[in-house]
Amino acid sequence: MAYNFNCNYYVASADSGNGHIFQFYTEMTSHGWTCVNTCYDSGGGFAVTNTISASSDLNTQSNEAPWIILRDGSGAGGVEICLWRSNSYYHYWNVKMSRTAGFTYNASAITDVPTATDEVVLLSGTSMFGSGNSYGAIMVEDVSPWQFYFVSWPTGSFSLDSALVKAELDMGPDTSHPDNNVYIVTNGGANIFENYKTHYPYELSSTGYGKNVAMINSTEYSSVVQLGWVCRDTYGAPNNIPQDSTGDILFPILYGRITYMDPPYGYSGATTMIKWSGTSRSLGDTIDSLNWIVFGDVVLPWDGTTTPSN
Question: Which residue in 6, 93, 251, 268 has the fewest CB atoms around it within 10 Å?
């Protein structure tokens, strides 16, 4: 396992979401992911290529372009992520993913957003990023399972603007599920990871906290619910377990499905990258000598050296 970080990068309001997307593209393609195709207008009209030179390449908008397709390091048949902008405002980016089929674009209409037979839309029709000055952080794992997170927050605050996460689930002895990852994408709100907060088994696809958490079952969108006996109802501790006042104890978050969702039902796995903490923490706090950071209601890996900026 090798985590690679870009912490505290800055994006001015004039660049907005384009700046964040370019940073994400740069980090991903520098650490094992491949840009399969991208469509943008760098001054000579829209064209399909596989390289972006600067965030300004993404400035011009037409139909559903600019768009970018990224594939994990496992090669053809690996997970692909498609990001596209369908609005002239730079912060209006969308995201969907393909588990195995891969995205293809229409050569006769290259500004149309690419499609995949098994695509799952994770965020669409809204602003993924804030429009003001902001900071961001990206972590990319450069070996399988190719985990990553990508978060942004406005200057002067840790009320986060956005998050895009691919996190592996340790499924234990049950390997029946075709994809052992959980995908999280959301925009806006101080506690964008608040999907872990309720102590009831919560349906996470349509209402309530965590509506943008998904697992992929075959070619269908499938929701993930928490297992009631491991969920928490207070910030910083699992349900009915007192907080540890002597220090931070980080532990995995468990997932499961109830029977009105797509099978398989029951326990789905535990996150290996996203943690809970045993003590109550504020957004932006760091733990264990800057090796972990609190974002929303969860704790994520940090680079061990950088003090978070706001």
Answer: 251
Long-range contacts of 225-230 (CB under 8 A, 24+ apart): 225/201, 225/255, 225/256, 225/257, 225/258, 225/261, 226/196, 226/198, 226/201, 226/202, 226/253, 226/254, 226/255, 226/256, 227/201, 227/254, 227/255, 227/256, 227/267, 228/199, 228/200, 228/201, 230/254
Mean pLDDT per block of 10 residues along the chain (310 residues) reads: 91 93 98 97 94 96 96 94 93 89 96 91 83 94 94 86 85 64 69 44 32 41 37 40 60 65 64 76 86 83 93
Query: CB neighbours of 290 closer than 8 A, spacing ≥ 6?
Result: 302, 303, 304, 305, 306, 307
Pairing of strands 266-277, 286-287: unpaired
Residues 275, 288: Cα–Cα separation, whole Å: 13
